Amino acid sequence: MTSKNQKASKNLRHSKDKVTSLQILQSSVKWHHMENVAACLWDAYSGLFGDQAMILAMNSSYVDPLLQFETQLKIIKSSFEMVFSIPSLEEVKEMGDQEDDKEDLENLYQNTLNLFEDTLLILVSKDLYKLQILKDMVVWMNEDSSYLQERVMVIISRVLSFASRRVRGYASVDAPCLGVLAAELSLLCCHSDPLITQQAASGLCHLLCIAKCQNAGTERKRSTMCEKSGDHCLLNTPSDMEFLPNILQRDKTKITQSVGFTLLPSLLTDFVWSLLMRLSSPHNIIAFRASTMLKLTLEYHAHKVTMVSKIVDTIYKQLCENPSHVMKHTMLRVVTLLTRTSPKKVVFQLMDYPVPADNTLILMWRAAGSESSVAPHVLKTILLILKGKPGEMQDSLKERRRFSLDTTNMMPVAASQALCTLLPVGSYRKAVAQVFPQLLMALMLQLCYSRDLRLVTGNRTLYAQDALRVLLTCSGLQQVDAALKRKNCWSRFSHAPSHHYGVYLVAKALSEYNFPQFPETLHYLYKLSVEDPRRSEDSIITVIFLTEILNNFFKDPFPEEFLVLFRNWVNDANPAVSKLSLQKIASMAPVINEIENVCSLLVSVLDAFLSKDKTVIIRALITLRRLLIRLDKVTYSSLCTRIASSYCPLMDHSNGGIRSMAIQHFGELLRDMSEYTWMLNDVILGGLVPLILFLEDTEIRVAQACKYTLAICVSELNWPTWHLLKDEFYSFEVVVLSICSNLLTSHENYITYLISDTLGFLRSSRVYLRRSSVILIGYLAKVGGHLLLRDEIEVMLEAIDLRLRDEDLVTRELAEITYTVFKEIAHRLTSSNLKQIFRRVFNSIYTKKLKLLYNYKWSDSPAHSPVRIKDTKNDKEAHMGEN
Description:
Layout: H1 3-30, H2 39-59, H3 65-83, H4 89-93, H5 99-126, H6 132-143, H7 149-166, H8 178-188, H9 194-212, H10 216-229, H11 240-248, H12 252-262, H13 265-278, H14 284-301, H15 308-321, H16 328-341, H17 343-350, H18 359-369, H19 375-385, E1 392-393, E2 408-409, H20 411-422, H21 429-434, H22 436-453, H23 463-474, H24 478-486, H25 499-512, H26 518-530, H27 536-553, H28 560-570, H29 575-587, H30 598-607, H31 614-630, H32 633-650, H33 656-672, H34 677-686, H35 688-693, H36 700-716, H37 732-746, H38 751-759, H39 767-784, H40 790-803, H41 809-828, H42 833-841, H43 843-848, H44 866-882
Antiparallel strand pairs: 1-2
């Protein structure tokens, strides 16, 4: 505000106070005689003096602003009732018998109204926030038609005129009531009384001038936008003000245009809200006026409305309370117009009600769906909601939106039901075609999510199923829907074991009928596959769907970009995804040599050996073997060492099935690569320890696999041991002795490494491994003791010493013999160097004459004893039960 204006305002307040004081003194003298002529007029006049005095005193005090305003509002209301309940001027003048009395009565009448007006001017001059009193005056006036409505409107117009002049030059204006007051004045601009209409139009014009001053920056920006768009604001120049009141009278379109262009979003929202509340007015005329203005305002300015959710919620509640509301169609039109500019807010609010949707909510969905221009936005918002899982707890406030039902997310169910309403709408066909793949997969996921929710209303099926069938029908895929019905596909989704098969049936049916949306669906599935899934079950459904789609449209092998996906899925965190991928890779065995990056594919399968899930490892073993059978020898030979090395850690797996399969496949690899034995000698020797020790496995399948593979190993190493592995000649200790003897003669340098590997099994929880490892380490020490250093022997003596206290009696007895062997070796190390050299020279001769140390007969072996065989079966059954 300029210093000139501030000075003028201060002078105005002082002059008002002085005039008021003089009036108080003079009035009692000048018009006191009127008390007997027109008592009601005199009472109103004298009462106003008292009320004004209290208001002025409160203005000068330090009372809490809110309490001050509430108190002043009560006083103003009392004054209002006194002033505007007095008779009209004609009636008052008739109370005087003489001409002088009539003149005095007229002056007293005008001064009474002026006194009330002056009180309002004093309040507004100090605080523009108190323009809110004018809003309440309109409400009081409408509540009682006996009040002098024309005179009320004159005062309101004058106060607004004063305020509009006062705010010129203000940087900002605090008048939050302008939106509601504008709504009341707009309705009065269409009043049947032309005098009231004139004053309302004038008041509305001044109000819009005040509103323009609320945010100068926003106004300049809006003016620029109006010029660019070709729209014309009705308050561009001061000269427009002279004609604006006449323009606003009874022209609802001009009224809503002026208000819409001028009011800030918060005020326009109040304007819209007030009109919405007036739709329920008992006076039909007012309700219809409000209806027309509300629709016109939203038609052009709905983008400025901020309380969209609250408006939609209010409409829903009103229609629920009164389904036959006289303004039902207007309310539904409001929903449509709000959807046009704020589709996301409307959709989220419509989702925020209990499911299944009632008739009112379905009507509102239809209203929202009737606006075809925003159909893509509506569907994208619904797709966003469909990413949620029904019944899932909302842990993060970031992910929570407007779930007022409870702490669980039921919006996806509501979204599925909404699609049943929206998808058949003709204007949505084009938008549906654009997002067909997204809708298809989202509803597939919802079908699988909903199997646990069991949301069934009467005999109706799940809404996700209904929506999916509607999607197929609306997309020209009626034959697919019919085929799925014949295959009883939909019932599959109700049961956990078979719901994945239901996904397969949908993909299969779409493929069989060559659905035209295949290219965009494949593109979207690929996009889903390379992104991180929100949930593990999402990946399963995506893999099943994509695999079946590819199977029907591509021949094996798949294009490289899709093979990359399957390679990545092999090591997915979800075991089901890994197994699905491995299963598909296994099916490519016949064309394995046509794959460009076959090595990377095989390596990904090998990586699956490291999985913590035993079923994934088993599937990986089976897949790898199928591929290797068909793999060309050149590629096979380049990877055989790595593959063989990958089998070795699995030979000691806790699962007997994995142990036997890894050992068996290791032997088959050696047989396949018999021409490349020289490449595999190190791997063979590195795997000897588990192959020997697990000959005594309690599971017959593991022991038999060891015999099979060990026979191949000794054959490749040209050792005469293979016949000892036949059942009729088999003796564990004899096999060990033979292998150790051959090691000394052909691969002496490996003996210390094998001793080190065997030490790791001495602490096994399995008795048979402790027994066999004690025997093996004893013979290795016997034939290779001359290779050991003193420190190594001390370590081994310490390890064997633990087995001397083993809980198993047989293990303790075997350990005593092995301990003695190491003691003898240690003793020999203390002899002269000449004796040690002599022993090393004749060591090979001595080994050939070595006799059995332990006399550990085959009947002692659990895998071969009739009694032990029974125990082995029981152990296997127990182990399977644990798994």
